[in-house]
Amino acid sequence: MTRYADFYRHSIDNRDAFWGEQAALIEWNTPPQQICDYSNPPFAKWFVGGTTNLCHNAVDRHLKTRADQPALVAISTETDTERSYSFAELHAEVQRMAATLQGLGVKKGDRVLIYMPMIAEAAFAMLACVRIGALHSVVFGGFASGSLASRIEDAEPVAVVSADAGSRGGKVVPYKPLLDEAIALSAHKPAAVLMVNRGLAPMDWQAGRDHDWASLREQHLNASVPCEWVESTHPSYTLYTSGTTGKPKGVQRDTGGYTVALAASMKHIFDAQAGQTYFATSDIGWVVGHSYIIYGPLIAGMTTIMYEGLPTRPDAGVWWSIVEKYKVTHMFSAPTAVRVLKKQDPSWLKKYDVSSLKALWLAGEPLDEPTAQWISDALAVPIIDNYWQTETGWPILTLANGVEQQTTRFGSPGKAMYGYAVKIVDESTGEELTGPNQKGVVGIEGPLPPGCMQTVWRDDARFVNTYWKSIPGRLLYSTFDWGIRDADGYHFILGRTDDVINVAGHRLGTREIEESIASHPNIAEVAVVGVADQLKGQVAMAFAVAKDASGLDSDAARLKLEGEVMKQVDHQLGAVARPSRVYFVNVLPKTRSGKLLRRALHAVAERRDPGDLTTMDDPAALQQVKDLVG
Ligand code: PRX
């Protein structure tokens, strides 16, 4: 057996011994009494009896050895600013924020919703929450008032931390009006709103509720707020993600398991050393931002880079200039970003010295071979695909180069990571497909390893029914992805089994988009499917039936309604969810019993053969879709 194969087997066969060893990578206030309590499957409790703190492990722990080393560098090519904080400075800022939140009434176990652009204060807010045992719930800044309102309602935050505006491509995107509208829409009203004023957009101020960060920070300049030692199983945060239904799920993460899992991944997967520099180009609104912009690199004692801006502005060399300037050793991005760069002049890459880079990790969506090959040739470092989910918090499939250097196979995110008992199973029987290259659903046998979701926020039944009951005959976690494993243990991911789509690495539920479109007064019915796209991987495409189609007989009239529908999605969900096209049809393709033929619609929208149509009610419906997409 190779070293990694041994390591993997040990993690599965001697689960508690393996994770007991990993637990030593972090600092505990009280060591755990029991490594894993799986007496109530599928609920796993990790490091039971131990007490620790995520902020302590990310910040305070490093004060002894690296207080003056940069911990966080926040770069914005939107506002042309670079701010660097040493571990000591980060420690001070986090305590100022923690004291401010406490002053606003936030206590252990309370939720704080964070709706912010990629600025350092967002990191202070996240770290401040976990420092005092409050749960953060970060909502992606690209989401609009409707998405925000449903998250406020579900998380019931005591406080919201936000900013006057973000900026994208030089265009200011005001956040405050969206936040005010979301709070107005939500049945739950947070008691306090803390605003970071960047001076980018004017703000309406609601006296008594809204507070200014700069003034409160001044009052807490010398704040000393100790870390609250919490039970390992105390939730650290919730993060909403899309599934099949319209209502996003609050993925709830613990404290001890997550801290250990990240520390272990920094060592075994990223082969990271304290003092090195990590640059993840994601956003704190997504899971990659939580695990690999904020917590993972800081736990490892690295410098982490937060970036606000586009990869192509002021020019397509901007990321490589950051790599050169900060001697970035580890870079993490998404295939779409690489495809965007690939369309630019290749000479941008040659302008900078990127020799500090050890590897580039890519995740979030399938990495196609030409893209992998292009960036591999350009950077001359390993390109490491990794596959995981908001639910798991860290990679399920990749290469653990810290354990053993393994060869990348383009098109495959790699092998099952230690701790994950990955199974490929038959969708209808639940039977395990053990032979090579058999296509099935990618499942994980419980207990899920440390760091994965504990449950759905306030909805244990949904956790069990959604994730653990979808594969017949056995209690198995479903990733809702199709996959195969080859004879050497390399996996290939072949797309989702459910109605989740992936647009430029952003995970969206088609049902959420459908609900938003259907709320337009002139829409009777709508179906949204994800259609393959060269640049973004997938885009959302909508097929709608108008309530009153009498005015829709001209291109201009159809375009006008299409524009209105898109605006509505922008306004309710955010531009990330906007469909690339809204086509108007007379009827949607359905079975005789009235069920939408989603697979057939999807196939035709991608100009593929729709397959068996014997149950279809009206063949003209699909023909019209075919004619429209051309
Ligand atoms: O369908 C898979 C796809 O993205 C989904 C998870 O998205 P999210 O919860 O946003 O988490 C992203 C964490 C990196 C998966 O169910 N996906 C993620 N990574 C890959 C991928 N598909 C193919 N290859 C990947 N490397």
Automatic annotation (TrEMBL):
Say if the entry is tagged with keyword Ligase. Answer: yes
The leader peptide range reads: none
Domain AMP-dependent synthetase/ligase residue range list: 60-447
Pfam families the record matches: ACAS_N, AMP-binding, AMP-binding_C
Keyword field contains Disulfide bond: no
Please give one Gene Ontology molecular function term for this protein: propionate-CoA ligase activity
**Domain Acetyl-coenzyme A synthetase N-terminal: from-to ranges:** 4-58
Determine the domain of life of the protein's source. Answer: Bacteria
| Key words of the record | ATP-binding, Ligase, Nucleotide-binding
Q: Which positions fall inside the AMP-binding enzyme C-terminal domain?
A: 512-595
Q: Which InterPro entries match?
A: ACAS_N, AMP-bd_C, AMP-bd_C_sf, AMP-dep_synth/lig_dom, ANL_N_sf, Propion_PrpE
Gene Ontology terms: biological process: propionate catabolic process, 2-methylcitrate cycle
The record's PANTHER family line, in alphabetical order, gives: ACYL-COA SYNTHETASE (PTHR43347), ACYL-COA SYNTHETASE SHORT-CHAIN FAMILY MEMBER 3, MITOCHONDRIAL (PTHR43347:SF3)
**Family classification:** Belongs to the ATP-dependent AMP-binding enzyme family.
Q: Supply the name of the protein.
A: Propionate--CoA ligase
Q: Which species is listed as the source? A: Acidovorax temperans
